[in-house]
Amino acid sequence: EAQVTQNPRYLITVTGKKLTVTCSQNMNHEYMSWYRQDPGLGLRQIYYSMNVEVTDKGDVPEGYKVSRKEKRNFPLILESPSPNQTSLYFCASSSSGSTDTQYFGPGTRLTVL
Amino acid sequence: GQQVMQIPQYQHVQEGEDFTTYCNSSTTLSNIQWYKQRPGGHPVFLIQLVKSGEVKKQKRLTFQFGEAKKNSSLHITATQTTDVGTYFCAGPRIGTYKYIFGTGTRLKVLA
Known about the structure:
The complex is a heterodimer of chains A (113) and B (111).
Chain A: E1 4-7, E2 10-13, E3 19-25, E4 31-38, E5 42-51, E6 54-57, E7 65-66, E8 76-78, E9 87-94, E10 103-104, E11 108-112
Parallel strand pairs in A: 2-11
Antiparallel strand pairs in A: 1-3, 3-8, 4-5, 4-9, 5-6, 7-8, 9-10, 9-11
Chain B: E1 4-7, E2 10-14, E3 19-25, E4 32-37, E5 44-49, E6 55-58, E7 61-65, E8 71-76, E9 85-92, E10 99-101, E11 105-110
Parallel strand pairs in B: 2-11
Antiparallel strand pairs in B: 1-3, 3-8, 4-5, 4-9, 6-7, 7-8, 9-10, 9-11
């Protein structure tokens, strides 16, 4: 089954404790992206990747890092989480970027205390 | 910076009534996509519009892309309880692969 998976689905952590949210897709998609969703603000793009080793900033990249060492995986790293990063995070992938359907993962609800 | 606003933010309708959400971008979009997010779920792709003035239909849903490619609308005829959710428009910033999403319209359908 074609899908995007994210782990963990829920995470409660404390300020400053490094964490990684994993994202994996099995559709051989080139484009992958991370979004955060906050009430009233819709989805805002954090980082995206056009292909292996090619990443770029979205609209809200501060406090986040990503890597794309393999085509299928695109982890999101928070080196020193802060309470303002409490949010619902979605990973998405598409075949080739701006003209293709984005397939979203189930989401990760992160709470930073 | 480029912004995409959607109105209304919330809409409650009686089952059987029609519903429309409007998406307005501050700049021209090369294409526009619509997504639906059920409560507690993730966004799911509905449709993509590419051409100026394009109109597409999916059963009770009608999507329109403005002539200037700066606005779009989604109209649902005779809403059903299964239409409940938040509807987002989205599109790539011109000349980039960065995506911008609209603020969303949350639809509630009262049976």
